[in-house]
Amino acid sequence: MTIVLLGFMGVGKTTVSKHIQRPFYDMDRMIEEKIGMPIADFFAREGEVAFRKIESETLEELLQVEEDCVISTGGGVVISEKNRDLLRQNQKYNVLLTASFEVLYHRIKQDTLSQRPLFLKHSKEDFYDMYQNRMKLYEGLADLIIRTENRSPEEIARIIECM
């Protein structure tokens, strides 16, 4: 089975994935390898539409992997109807990691290694609206929802492994 981790940026999908005892695919890292540059640079050069196309192709490829694995998705993977359809086909194994907006906003603001294009170009209010809109989409696809705020990545991984 393929476990897909969903959730807003900064929630800990990649961190938790590293603690689950199965092969792990980080969509953002894979996309950066494909495009040969950081996602932020690609966004600036080619735009969000071009990025979302590559993101959909990558998700489709990963969902066809035969081995039991974990896929850590990007925060915006649910924007595309095509991606939502692909994720519905993975029903029973879509895990939503959540945290409050304030916690996520603080984490993203403090993260100097990952400059997130959508964070950098929106006000806090606009970013909150984006969070609210995406949460509705995530929740519609999730088979298991785990709050991450007061749990360690290892604890979250153990919960997921019990699926």
Identify the CATH class.
Answer: Alpha Beta
The assigned structural class equals: alpha/beta
Percentage beta strand? 5-15%
Average pLDDT score: 92
Strand arrangement within the widest β-sheet reads 2-3-1-4-5
Total separate domains: 1
Radius of gyration: 15 Å
DSSP, total strands: 5
Query: CATH superfamily, please?
Result: P-loop containing nucleotide triphosphate hydrolases
Roughly how much helix do the residues carry, as a percent range? 40-55%
Q: State the order of secondary-structure elements, H for helix, E for strand.
A: EHEHHHEHEHHHEH
Number of helices, where a helix is a run of at least 4 consecutive DSSP H or I residues: 9
Spans of at least 5 consecutive residues with low confidence: none
**Which architecture would the CATH scheme give at its second level?**
3-Layer(aba) Sandwich
**Global shape:** globular
- End-to-end gap: 10 Å
Largest sheet: 5 strands, parallel
Main location: cytoplasm
Subunit structure: Monomer.
Function: Catalyzes the specific phosphorylation of the 3-hydroxyl group of shikimic acid using ATP as a cosubstrate.
EC number: 2.7.1.71
